[in-house]
Structures are given as structure tokens and as C-alpha cells.
Design goal:
The complex is a heterodimer of chains A (about 550) and B (about 325).
Chain A: H1 12-33, E1 44-47, E2 98-105, H2 115-123, E3 128-135, H3 136-148, E4 155-159, H4 169-176, H5 181-184, H6 193-196, H7 200-204, E5 207-209, E6 218-220, E7 222-224, E8 227-228, E9 233-238, H8 239-244, H9 253-263, E10 271-273, E11 292-295, E12 298-301, H10 306-320, H11 335-341, E13 344-350, H12 352-364, E14 370-372, E15 390-391, E16 393-397, H13 403-416, H14 423-430, E17 437-439, E18 445-447, H15 449-454, H16 476-489, E19 501-504, H17 507-524, H18 533-560
Parallel strand pairs in A: 2-3, 2-4, 10-13
Antiparallel strand pairs in A: 1-19, 4-16, 5-6, 7-16, 8-15, 9-13, 9-14, 11-12, 17-18
Helix pairs in contact in A: 17-18
Chain B: H1 27-57, H2 81-88, H3 92-109, H4 111-123, H5 127-138, H6 145-156, H7 161-168, H8 183-208, H9 212-220, H10 225-250, H11 258-262, H12 264-267, H13 269-272, H14 275-285, H15 290-317
Helix pairs in contact in B: 2-15, 3-8, 4-8, 5-8, 10-15, 14-15
The chains are: A alpha+beta (about 550), B mainly alpha (about 325).
Chain lengths: ~550, ~325
């Protein structure tokens, strides 16, 4: 028998290798063949009201009444003077535990060694809560991995908008976090009067079902943050620049376009707009949330409505006419800095920018005045204003904690829920007098440098649990202005068609939504024509839109019968 | 004159065993002999096992409907269902093609640039100029992509330095940074600024290993600068060039993430969607989950392995060492 040559594929070693691969393959194939279908990523829907196991609501009497009385939640009440704070908790507990809670932070993370944290531990009854502070910009995505690996300490704070990054948050919640139901069920006002004073809707929105198909398995898993209402974002105009150009605040989209043309000067380096993506759909009557509206007996997505074309036409027009900063698509612009400099006249931002602009422009001496645009609409339609409709955040506790530890942490959460006008609130929100703030001439606390750095951080103990009531607070003029603004737009607040239910869309629907956003940007920045919209919508329908409609329709039917 | 060789080696007597080409020892003998060396490799092996082989074993979740919240063995096998979903996705193929486009462009236009830079550096005699040149070229490698893109926007953006300078002369703003048609050139400029210096350092290390006497001998023989580079320098660094080329080809589908993700809005998803951004937008933002992302990663790994084996085989056939010595 001839010996196989070196070049032959039948060399001894090659033959062994091939045989090995073959055996491995033969062993693996039956495993692979005996497979099921993918069942994950189908989306969930969770009722958030009508439970009998929530904490019983016991109104917590406010120590001082607001001087501006609104209609919460969309039109919150406010304080134009700083009240003399009074203690909220009469019987301070005696605790000694230490907990580590993972929280997002934007900007420089303050040290846990600051006297602010020690003072809180002391005032709350001896519980030390150390913050594990992580970058807020990537917190949503990275929190997925921490939760999967159970590497988040004794608890984690998640904002409601962060849930988008979690493939199946319902599954994560019921498998990772402590089930609080048996501890907080019924009357808890004896030990935790402030938690008992949180709105029932807040606790309802903290419920997830261990089995999504079985409503009977619903349980409380999170300590709710504050229940916010009213508009969370606005388009802020530099009113001083408008005045310079003889323009008034626009009240319709058509007027806005005219004003934008009047104030823009491309060659001179001034443009009307920075970003226009996430607020402007409401000017055209498009829905907030996941984009569904109930029209003529069925759910219709924003992209299927004629107003969607109008909205994209508007964005395209302002781009073509050079009314938008030309480097906006680069994503590297510091919109707030450009707004302060007057390079951008209209800045799309959160409501906190109103006060932020005043504080920063005063401190930097840059001057200028701003005001939010009211409820705009196009073509004479009834305006629509997207509003917050739920709790801002939750603090979830690790399922590995003991019942006693959870109860101690609830003591701490009870402390954090103290509202405006209490000494607890003052400590949590302003720090220690002399160390972090001093009282201004009108009696209002004013941060010093340390306070700005440590206490004014957007997330810390002050956001660990919701306040029994949210108020407008700050400088008197600003409180009055925000109060009046909320009053002017509250009648146009969008009605949430999924009120009382939390719906998480299927993964295909979310993927299709991402592609739609990319395609919208193509049109808005001149890379595609408006004529591409029908194809975009068809692609969206075929690649997840219809699956999404089915899912949301089932949820809607379950909710409305 | 004394004889250089005092005695001839003894001829092997008839019947005496000829010395073996390789000294075959038992495993025990080899362990006793080599244990210090083996001990030295242990940390590296442990590091590889913990941070590479163990995570690699988890690639199996690409064949499962995996959830981290149930025991591993309770995750159902779904065969190639995630791969089917991956290949059926209408945006997968464009992402793959874009990836290949940028990978080959990088290989064709950046790889030679690093060699050229190394040769230029090597020819500079002044140490001051050399260190200054090296710092200027090498430093951007340590910048993050966020910083690189920001610097480009500030310089070449529509409201950047150059645009405003052109406006001053009555010209038009540059639209270079937001034009999908010029993105490949823009990407090349960014690679060249950020990465060419790093590649240069590796080739410089290879150039340093060339025996200077070869140059001296060639110069004495009258070889020109060009001849010396062609006949001494390039052959001297050829094994390193081939090795890096093979490794580059193996990682051809790993074109990076940040550079494309950061400029997605500026030039559009159709231009910047590569496999890594595709996985991010489907797996994380689209919440397809870890199995989908792992399937995409495994696909990239298998393609990379095949390409490395092919390139290595070609290198061996051309007489090069490749990534390992052919036995």
C-alpha cells in the first residue's frame, strides 16, 4: 500500500484532526437539532393599579402649606418663600447598618467622606448609605451587566427612562431584587409615615409580576422615587435676542418659523435651533411614549400619521434654510454653552435649564434672558403637550439582604421622603449650614462651592426615595414663572392611553424603532428626501412595527376591555 | 605549527546505536527538567484561562435562548435560530459589507503608511528631530475616539476653524464632516492621525533589529540609499510585516465601534453601520439580548479564524514564517 504523500489530505495527522472534528460535530448536531424556538424578547405588559397589597395611603400632613396652590401632578404647587423648616420624623430610629447603593452620577462624583453623608447618617438614625457612583451617561446600558452579575452592592437606583436598555426588565426585577410586598403591605404609617404618604400610584408603578401571564403573581419590588407631572422638557427661547430683532415669543409653529428666519444668520454664526428631535413631535400632535395613539378604533403609530410627514418636513425646512447649527449632526455640540453665548437662540432642554441658565449666566456674567415656548401647534390644530406620567425612579434592593436589613433601609427611605419645609429635606437638599450653604437675604439657602460640588449633585440620598409631594421651589421669580407656565399648558396635557399599565415592547419593535430614528435623521439632515417616508413606514411595519401593534393592542384591550 | 585539530572524533563502532535526531524523554523527565520554565508560564496561563478561555466557553449561549436569571442548564437550546435571525436581518448584510469596506481600506491605506512612517523615522539621524517627530505622530494613539472626532469637528466641521477661515474669504462652509460620500476619506484621515504612529513603533522595533554592519558593508560596496532600503531594510522587516498583516486579516471584522457610532448622526446609519454598531443597536438598544450579540461575535470570530488560517497558509507557501514556525 502506498504511503500517502505530504500533500495528501489523507495524512495521518490530518485524518485524526478531521475525525476529531467529525466526532465533535456528530456529538453536537443532535444537541443543536433538538432545539426549541426563541421565546425571549416578546415584550411584557404589567398592570400598575388595582392591587390590594400596596401600602395603605395615609396622608402625611404638610408642616407648611405652599403659597401657590396648583393641581398636581401636572400643575404642581410651589413655594415663593423659604419656610422655617420643622422636623418631619418624631421618633428617629436607632440603626447601625451600612449599605452600598449604586447610583448614576453626571459630572464629578463627590467623595463619600464628605461631612454631608455623615450628617445624613446621623440624622436618619445611624444608617450609613455609601454611594457607588457610576457614569450616568452609560449607566443604563452598563447596569444590565451589573444586574446580571449581581454586582451592584445592596441596591441600585434606576431612573424610569433607563429601563429601555434592559432586554427583559420584568425578568430582571423578579430575579434580582428584594420582594418588598410582605414588608410594605397594608398600614405602614406607624413605622414609615412618609412612605405611607407616597401616592398609591407611585407604589402601583413599583409592581412587577413574577409570571407576566399571571396577574396574581404581582409583587412590590421597588421603593418609588418622586411622582412627577407636567412637562419635563421645553424649547427655551433667548427672549433678549428676540427683542433685539423685534420679535415676540411665537405661539404657533408657523410663527416660530418666521421668528427663526428673522434671528438666524448663518454667515454671522447665529442659528435659531440646536436639537429639535424629541420635543417637536408634540407641536404636530404626535403621541409621546412609544408613539401609539388610539384613532378610529385602533392603535396607530406616529409614523403612520400624516402629521409625521409634516413634522419631518418642518425639520427638513429648518435644515435646508440653515436655521439649525450646521454641526448639530456631529453630536459634539455643547448646546447649553451655545445657548448662553447666543449662538443658538432656541434650546431644547429639560425644565431645569430655566433655572440653570439664570444661575450660570449670572455667575459667568454672560447675561441674557430665557423663557420656554408655550403649547405650540401647527395648522391651527389643538396643541398637545407631552407630560410626565409616573415615578421618576426606583431604588431596588438586592434580594440577598435580610428582612431586618430591608426594614432598616426603609427607615432610611422614610427619612429621604421628607418634603420641602422639613429639616430632613433641608439637610438632604442643601447640606449643613456653613459647610455647604448659607442663608441668603431672603432666607433661602444658597450653596457655597463645597455645596455646589457635593450636595447639588443630581443624584444622591435626596433622590433615593420619593417625596410625599413635589413642589416648585427655588428663586421666587422662577417659581412663579414655572407655576404660571404649567398653568398655561396643563389643559393641553396628553392623556396617556396606557394609564395604569406598564408596557414593554417586543425586541423587534424596538429594533424597528431604532431604524426609524436613523431614517428620520437622514431626512432631517438632508441625506434622504421626504418621498422616502412611505418606504420607511413599510420597512418599519414589516420589521417589527406590526408585531409591536399586536402587542400594544393586546395590552390596550386588556386595560380598556 | 600546531595542528588546529588535535584528534579526530572516534568513529562509531559497528552495531552501536546512532544518536537520535531528537532526544525523546518521558513526560516525567521533561517535567523535572523544565519545571522552572513551566512555573513561569503559569501566571500567563491562568490569566488566559480566566479572561479568555473561560469567557470563550460562554459562546455556547449563541445556541441558547439564554437568560442570566435561570440556571445555565435550564436555558433551552435553540440551535442556529439566533444565527438565522442574524442573517435574516435586512441590516446585517449592509453592516457586513461596510465592515469589510472599512477593514480593507484600513489594510490598504493605513498599514503601508505605518511602514513608510517607520522608514522615514529610521532614516532621520538627528535624535531631537526624531523624538519630536515620534511624539507628534505617536501621541494621538492615546486619544479617545470622542476626542479625535471632536478635534476633527472643531477643525474641519461646518462651524470649525477651516470653515470660518474660508467664510472670511467669502467662501462656503465645509460640509465634509457630514457628507456620506466623503466619509471613507474622512475615516482614513482619522485613522492616519490616530493609529499610524502606533503601527510605526512596531515596525521601528523590527528595524532596530537589523544588523547595522549590513548597511555599512552595502555602503562600502557603493549601494545607494534606495538600494540599501530595498535590499536590506525591507527584507529585514518582512517577517514582521507578514506577521502583522496576518493578524490584521484575522481581526478584519473588528473595525471598532466608537468611531462609527460617534459619527452615525453626522453621515447617517447607512454609511457608518458596521458589525459592532449593528450588534449594539440590535442587541442593547433593540434589546435582542446577549444570545444575539454572542451569535454575531461568534460569526466574526469564525470568519477571523478562517482568514488567519488562509493567510498563514499563503505565508508558509511563500516561504515566510507566518504566525508560527511550520513543523
Amino acid at each position: 500500500m502506498a504511503t500517502p504523500s505530504d500533500g495528501s489530505v489523507f495524512r495521518r495527522r490530518s485524518l485524526f484532526k478531521a475525525a476529531g472534528l467529525g466526532v465533535a460535530g456528530a456529538a453536537g448536531l443532535p444537541v443543536i437539532a433538538a432545539c426549541g424556538d426563541i421565546e425571549s424578547g416578546g415584550g411584557t405588559s404589567q398592570t400598575t393599579s388595582g392591587f390590594d397589597f400596596l401600602p395603605e395611603y395615609k396622608e402625611w400632613p404638610l408642616p407648611v402649606q405652599p403659597d401657590l396652590v396648583g393641581e398636581p401632578p401636572n400643575h404642581p404647587s410651589g413655594f415663593t418663600t423659604y419656610p422655617e423648616p420643622v422636623p418631619a420624623i418624631e421618633n428617629v430610629p436607632s440603626n447601625s447598618g451600612t449599605y452600598e447603593i449604586t447610583v448614576p452620577i453626571w459630572g464629578e462624583a463627590p467623595s463619600n467622606d464628605d461631612p454631608y453623608f455623615a450628617a445624613i447618617a446621623d440624622a436618619s438614625g445611624g444608617t450609613t448609605v455609601n454611594l457607588r457612583q457610576a457614569d450616568g451617561n452609560t449607566f443604563a446600558e452598563t447596569s444590565v451587566q451589573w444586574l446580571n452579575a449581581n454586582e451592584y452592592g445592596d441596591g441600585i437606583m434606576l431612573f424610569s427612562w433607563m429601563l429601555f436598555a434592559h432586554p427583559n426588565f420584568q425578568e430582571t426585577v423578579v430575579n434580582s431584587f428584594y420582594d418588598l410586598t410582605d414588608i410594605v403591605k397594608g398600614d405602614i404609617s406607624e413605622r414609615w409615615p412618609l412612605l405611607a404618604g407616597l401616592p398609591t400610584a407611585s407604589w402601583g408603578q413599583s409592581v412587577w409580576s413574577t409570571d407576566p401571564a399571571d396577574p396574581e403573581t404581582a409583587r412590590v419590588f421597588g421603593i418609588p422615587g418622586s411622582f412627577s407631572g407636567g412637562p419635563g422638557n421645553a424649547m427655551f427661547a433667548r427672549t433678549d435676542i428676540l427683542e433685539e430683532h423685534g420679535q415676540a415669543l411665537p405661539t404657533t409653529v408657523e410663527e416660530l418659523l418666521e421668528v427663526a428666519r428673522a434671528v438666524s444668520d448663518d454667515a454671522g454664526g447665529r442659528w435659531a435651533f440646536g436639537g429639535t428631535d424629541y420635543l417637536t413631535p408634540q407641536w404636530f400632535g404626535l403621541a409621546g411614549g412609544d408613539g401609539w395613539a388610539y384613532i378610529d378604533g385602533k392603535l396607530v403609530h406616529n409614523c403612520e400619521r400624516p402629521e409625521y410627514t409634516e413634522w419631518l418636513e418642518f425639520r427638513r425646512t429648518i435644515w435646508d434654510e440653515k436655521l439649525v447649527h450646521p454641526d448639530l449632526p456631529s453630536g459634539t455640540l455643547d448646546g447649553q454653552a451655545l445657548h448662553k453665548a447666543g449662538t443658538i437662540v432656541f434650546q431644547l432642554d429639560g425644565m431645569s435649564w430655566w433655572q440653570g441658565f439664570i444661575d450660570q449666566s449670572t455667575a459667568e456674567g454672560t447675561g441674557g434672558t430665557i423663557a420656554p415656548l408655550g403649547a405650540l401647534s401647527a395648522k391651527g390644530r389643538q396643541p398637545l403637550v407631552h407630560v410626565n406620567t409616573g415615578v421618576d425612579s426606583w431604588t431596588f434592593l438586592n434580594k440577598d439582604l435580610t428582612k431586618e436589613q430591608v426594614e432598616e433601609f426603609l427607615d432610611f427611605a422614610n427619612f429621604c421622603s421628607a418634603p420641602y419645609g422639613t429639616t430632613e429635606y433641608e439637610l438632604l437638599n442643601y447640606g449643613i449650614e456653613g459647610t455647604h450653604f448659607t442663608y441668603g437675604p431672603d432666607g433661602t439657602p444658597v450653596y457655597n462651592e463645597v455645596g455646589t460640588k457635593v450636595v447639588q449633585a443630581p443624584v444622591n440620598h435626596k433622590t433615593m426615595s420619593g417625596h410625599v409631594q413635589q413642589f416648585l421651589t427655588g428663586t421666587p421669580d422662577m417659581v412663579q414663572a414655572r407655576f404660571d407656565y404649567n398653568a398655561s399648558v396643563k389643559d393641553f396635557a396628553e392623556v396617556n392611553i396606557f394609564e395604569g399599565m406598564r408596557v414593554e415592547g417586543p425586541s423587534e419593535f424596538k429594533s424597528a424603532g431604532q431604524v426609524l430614528i436613523d431614517q428620520q435623521n437622514d431626512i432631517a439632515f438632508g441625506r434622504a428626501d421626504l418621498s422616502a417616508i412611505p418606504d420607511m413606514v413599510e420597512t418599519w411595519k414589516n420589521n417589527g412595527g406590526e408585531v409591536g401593534r399586536e402587542h400594544y393592542t393586546a395590552a390596550y384591550d386588556k386595560l380598556h376591555g | 605549527m600546531a595542528a588546529l585539530q588535535t584528534s579526530a572524533p572516534p568513529a562509531p563502532s559497528r552495531g552501536q546505536a546512532r544518536p537520535r535526531a531528537k532526544n525523546k524523554r518521558t513526560l516525567g523527565q521533561r517535567l523535572r527538567h523544565d519545571w522552572p520554565l513551566l512555573l513561569l508560564t503559569l501566571p500567563a496561563l491562568a490569566q488566559l484561562a480566566v479572561f479568555f478561555y473561560w469567557p470563550s466557553a460562554w459562546n455556547i449561549i449563541a445556541f441558547m435562548d439564554y437568560s442570566p436569571h435561570r440556571p445555565f442548564w435550564e436555558n433551552p437550546f435553540v440551535g442556529f435560530a439566533w444565527f438565522e435571525r442574524l442573517f435574516a436581518n435586512p441590516y446585517f448584510m449592509p453592516a457586513l459589507l461596510n465592515t469589510l469596506k472599512y477593514a480593507f481600506a484600513n489594510l490598504l491605506f493605513l498599514f503601508p503608511l505605518s511602514i513608510v512612517l517607520a522608514l522615514v523615522m529610521h532614516s532621520v539621524i538627528s535624535t531631537k528631530i526624531r523624538s519630536a517627530f515620534q511624539s507628534v505622530v505617536y501621541l494621538p494613539y492615546f486619544f479617545s475616539w470622542v476626542l479625535v472626532v471632536t478635534v476633527f469637528v472643531q477643525t474641519l466641521g461646518s462651524d470649525g476653524l477651516v470653515s470660518n477661515w474660508i467664510l472670511g474669504f467669502g467662501g462656503e462652509r465645509l460640509t465634509f464632516m457630514s457628507d456620506p460620500d466623503s466619509f471613507l476619506f474622512l475615516a482614513w484621515l482619522q485613522w492616519a492621525w490616530k493609529d499610524a504612529g502606533w503601527g510605526m513603533i512596531i515596525f521601528l522595533a523590527a528595524l532596530a533589529s537589523i544588523n547595522p554592519s549590513l548597511y555599512e558593508a552595502a555602503a562600502v560596496d557603493g549601494a545607494s540609499r534606495w538600494r540599501r532600503m530595498w535590499h536590506i531594510t525591507l527584507p529585514g522587516i518582512r517577517p514582521v510585516i507578514v506577521l502583522l498583516l496576518i493578524l490584521h486579516i484575522g481581526g478584519i471584522l473588528n473595525v471598532g465601534f466608537e468611531q462609527y457610532q460617534l459619527q452615525r448622526n453626522a453621515v447617517g446609519y447607512q454609511t457608518t453601520e458596521v458589525l459592532d454598531t449593528f450588534v449594539y443597536y440590535r442587541s442593547v438598544i433593540g434589546t435582542e439580548g446577549p444570545s444575539f450579540g454572542t451569535a454575531a461575535g461568534l460569526f466574526k470570530g469564525v470568519i477571523g479564524l478562517v482568514l488567519v488560517l488562509i493567510a498563514n497558509n499563503v505565508a508558509h507557501r511563500l516561504g515566510e514564517q507566518g504566525i508560527y514556525q511550520k513543523s
